[in-house]
Automatic annotation (TrEMBL):
This is TIGR02301 family protein. It comes from the Bacteria. Residues 1-23 form the signal peptide. Keywords: Signal. The lineage of its organism: Bacteria, Pseudomonadati, Pseudomonadota, Alphaproteobacteria, Hyphomicrobiales. The keyword Signal applies. It comes from Rhizobium oryzicola. InterPro entries: CHP02301.
């Protein structure tokens, strides 16, 4: 599983320049009557880096959309990352999604028009994201 995830993260590093979109609705799940703990999520050794990467992607998505930059299908790319990395781990999925949304909202609260500062922030975040994705792939890849 780590190998597929690292491949997806490597792809993110290569494609970080285009825009990105993610919208996820929380669904109410009926509570099963179990005595065992519901949360069986296991933390990966690169979870903190992955959470930061998701936040960067949210920021870059907002800024690229604000400035009208052309992009590719980042929704599908992030969805693939979520599906690969968080299969059967709903709390990890929620953490990554929340991180993406936090990155998006942090810039949405400050930038309402495309400015030179917004373009510069997008460039810097994109570079940080590409570096982070490369580091994760290099360190945890097989």
């Amino acid at each position: 599983m780590i190998r597929r995830t690292v491949t997806t993260i490597s792809l993110l590093g290569l494609l970080l320049a285009p825009g990105f979109a993610l919208a996820q609705q929380k669904k109410e799940q009926p509570q099963a009557q179990q005595t065992a703990p519901v949360n069986q999520d296991k933390a990966a050794p690169y979870d903190q880096q992955l959470i930061r990467l998701a936040e960067i992607l949210g920021s870059v998505h907002y800024l690229r959309t604000l400035c009208g930059a052309p992009g590719s299908d980042w929704r599908a790319t992030m969805q693939k990352l979520l599906d690969t990395e968080t299969a059967n781990e709903p709390s990890r999925r929620e953490r990554l999604t929340a991180s993406f949304n936090r990155g998006y909202r942090s810039f949405a609260a400050v930038h309402t028009t495309c400015t030179p500062a917004a373009r510069l922030a997008e460039e810097r975040y994109r570079a940080e994201g590409a570096t982070l994705a490369a580091e994760i792939a290099a360190r945890y890849g097989n």
